[in-house]
């Protein structure tokens, strides 16, 4: 078994949890879409502030880009860009960059599916806030990463650390999804019902 196979196996139940938590977010409707963006912002702002220590310029740039796009979108939707809930999320300092690469580049696969749903939105407010979801994705980076992880052994101190750190990144998303409902109090549900 390679590290690539182990990463998929050992994060599968967490992916299923994230998937189930995000499934109710209908990204073609303003409430679901705002929840979706806010969950990503909570998780990614936390990772951007804490996860790396200048040792992975590619992921630093990705996190800057993603957080910047999320703030633009949430501002467009009139939501406060809540980026300061870090202490309530699982701690993460100096995560292994390959753990972050695996989870964040992998999550782009799910985003591509959701982008199609978002494109079907009739609400112009939803369509006006597409910086994050429609940001171009580079499948080559994911394939290159998978090829490299496929060459790495699945057991040992380094593989254990990468798997544990990838699980931590998923746990941050899970905690962010739990938290975000309280950030949405300012949105009026009756307004959603009209769209
Ligand atoms: C509703 C939200 C999501 C949906 C519908 C979704 C869906 C998917 C799908 C269809 C795949 C491809 C599975 C395969 O080819 O075997 C995938 C892969 C992946 N997703 Fe998600 N995803 C979602 C959210 C996320 C989030 C938030 C994360 C990160 C925290 C994430 C991380 C990953 C990873 C790492 C992979 C690669 C798995 C592997 O091949 O090793 N996904 N996702």
List the helices and strands and how they pair.
Elements: H1 3-22, H2 30-50, H3 57-76, H4 97-119, H5 124-128, H6 139-150, H7 157-183, H8 189-193
Helix pairs in contact: 1-7, 2-3, 2-7, 4-6, 4-7
The structure holds protoporphyrin IX containing FE.
Key traits:
195 residues, mainly alpha, Heme Oxygenase, Chain A, 8 helices, disordered C terminus, binds protoporphyrin IX containing FE
How much helical structure, as a percent, in the residues? Answer: 55-70%
State the shape.
globular
Give the number of helices.
8
* Beta-strand residue percentage: under 5%
Superfamily (CATH H level) name = Heme oxygenase-like
Query: Which distinct ligands sit in these coordinates?
Result: protoporphyrin IX containing FE
CATH architecture assignment: Up-down Bundle
Question: What is the chain-wise order of helices and strands?
Answer: HHHHHHHH
Number of domains: 1
Mean of pLDDT = 89
As residue ranges, the low-confidence spans are 185-195
Q: What is the CATH third-level topology name? A: Heme Oxygenase, Chain A
Q: Would you state the CATH class?
A: Mainly Alpha
CA-CA gap between termini? 49 Å
Any idea what the radius of gyration is?
Answer: 17 Å
Helix/sheet category: mainly alpha
Q: Main β-sheet, in a few words?
A: none
Number of strands: 0
């Amino acid at each position: 078994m390679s590290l690539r196979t182990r990463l998929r196996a050992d994060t599968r139940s967490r992916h299923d949890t994230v998937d189930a938590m995000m499934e109710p977010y209908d990204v073609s409707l303003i409430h679901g879409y705002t929840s979706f963006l806010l969950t990503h912002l909570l998780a990614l702002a936390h990772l951007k502030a804490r996860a790396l220590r200048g040792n992975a310029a590619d992921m630093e740039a990705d996190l800057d880009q993603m957080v910047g796009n999320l703030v633009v979108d949430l501002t467009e939707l009139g939501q406060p860009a809540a980026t300061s809930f870090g202490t309530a999320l699982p701690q993460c300092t100096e995560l292994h960059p390959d753990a972050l690469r695996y989870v964040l580049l992998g999550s782009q696969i799910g985003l591509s599916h959701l982008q199609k749903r978002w494109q079907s939105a009739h609400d112009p407010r939803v369509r006006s806030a597409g910086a994050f979801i429609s940001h171009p994705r580079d499948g080559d980076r994911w394939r290159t990463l998978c090829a490299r992880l496929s060459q790495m052994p699945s057991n040992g101190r380094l593989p254990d650390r990468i798997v544990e750190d990838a699980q931590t990144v998923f746990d941050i998303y899970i905690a962010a999804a739990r938290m975000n409902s309280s950030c949405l109090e300012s949105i009026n549900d009756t307004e959603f019902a009209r769209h």
